[in-house]
Write a structure and sequence with these properties.
Receptor-associated Protein, three-stranded antiparallel beta sheet, 3 strands, about 75% helix, about 5% strand
Length: about 400
């Protein structure tokens, strides 16, 4: 339950705000534990039935985290106190779910908690990478620079991922609409036309018989086909959530012609970017690779990084630990080796990350350029084949009259 309150803090300043608690007594106790003198407390006015913020149903998006990181970078750069920063952003955030999280983080900071520890209580919102970066910034005293690093890094990663997703939205929409239209044609239009054609008593072309057969099959067994499809989808989702399923899907994704190369470059860009950002903030190479393995979003590359960590712990260099994997390009290994020898590993990683990011952008643009003409040909063959199957017998009938 949400309560409004007015208090006098330890400095004698009057303040007001809101607090969530099960009961009013719990809210009063929480405020008094912070050393406040309560002058007023009451339940906040309820929101209308249609204005309730169902924060438990909402999710903090990557875009929200990118915007938050930029705001944190700006505010910490202006030397605003951590407590005031999170209070301000908690009041101003447009996302109800993020607003709730930031207010809880602010309460923890006010209670004496470090920023990284306060953020770590919300693992669904802040990744291990994010938390470790903040912890490193606190330890090195470069929290402002850390937030600036994170803002730039997450922004580039978000733009890259958004570009890939947006490239697939249009083709997916067109294919779905095409399938729906074709199903309606086969179940509603073709049956009526087939009655006219069969009543004419003439021999039908092969293509027409195929189309009529497909229409009859959908009418007779369509419901079973839908049930089978639902079962297959359910089993696939269940399998994809297992460790073996994730590994199989990931391996398949990386081996699909052209698309697999796109995914490979995207994962490499993410890995190299994360490593560069963490190393620049003073995080050890072992901790950097351990953290990167948890956020790469690929079981294949996660296993590679985990094996590399074990090799590094035994005294092997980073470049040598990544040697021998088909998923790791030799040029990347050689560049990392040069970076280790010259002491410019962070700079080399940044160069490689931006290189693969440009490669992904170029690959996505090429893919979009290939998809559109391919879809036009595919749709043209589908619609043209259906029209030919219908018009050829009608033309034969009219010619015979």
């Amino acid at each position: 339950m949400l309560f409004k309150y007015k208090i006098v803090d330890k400095k004698g300043e009057e303040k007001e705000g809101r607090i969530e608690a099960v009961t009013e007594e719990v809210a009063i106790s929480a405020l008094q534990d912070r050393g406040y003198i309560i002058t007023f407390i009451n339940p906040a006015e309820g929101k209308g039935l249609f204005n309730i913020e169902f924060t438990f149903l909402q999710k903090v998006s990557n875009k929200d985290i990118v915007i938050l990181s930029k705001q944190l970078s700006t505010l910490f750069g202006s030397h605003v106190s951590a407590l005031r920063v999170f209070r301000l952003l908690g009041d101003e955030s447009e996302s109800p779910a993020l607003r709730k999280v930031l207010k809880e983080v602010a309460d923890d900071i006010q209670g004496g908690s470090q920023i990284s520890i306060a953020l770590a209580k919300h693992p669904k919102v802040f990744s291990n990478f994010y938390i470790n970066m903040i912890k490193s910034g606190e330890e090195s005293g470069k929290l402002n620079e850390t937030f600036s690093f994170l803002a730039d890094h997450l922004d580039r990663g978000y733009n890259l991922l958004s570009k890939v997703k947006n490239a697939l939205v249009y083709p997916a929409f067109v294919v779905i609409v095409f399938i729906v239209v074709m199903v309606l044609m086969f179940t509603m239009v073709i049956p009526k036309i087939s009655l006219i054609l069969t009543d004419a008593g003439q021999e039908l072309p092969v293509l027409t018989r195929v189309v009529i057969g497909m229409s009859d099959f959908l009418l007779s067994y369509g419901i079973y086909l839908i049930v089978l499809l639902i079962i297959v989808v359910f089993m696939f989702i269940k399998f994809s959530r297992t460790k073996a399923g994730k590994l199989s899907i990931d391996n398949f994704r990386l081996r699909v012609p052209y698309v697999g190369n796109l995914y490979r470059k995207m994962y490499l860009s993410r890995i190299l970017g994360n490593m560069k950002t963490m190393l620049s903030s003073g995080v050890s190479i072992v901790k950097t690779m351990e953290t990167t393995s948890t956020i790469v979003d690929s079981i294949v590359y996660q296993n590679i990084l985990n094996e590399s960590v074990e090799a590094i712990k035994s005294g092997v260099s980073v470049a040598d630990s990544l040697t021998g994997y088909d998923e790791i390009p030799n040029i990347m290994v050689q560049m990392i080796k040069i970076g280790e020898e010259t002491g410019e590993l962070s700079s080399i990683l940044d160069t490689l990350s931006r290189f693969y990011e440009r490669e992904v952008n170029g690959a996505v643009d090429t893919l979009v350029g290939m998809i559109e003409p391919a879809m036009i040909v595919f749709l043209g063959l589908g619609v043209g084949g259906l029209m030919a199957a219908v018009l050829m017998p009608i033309y034969n009938i009219s010619s015979a009259i």
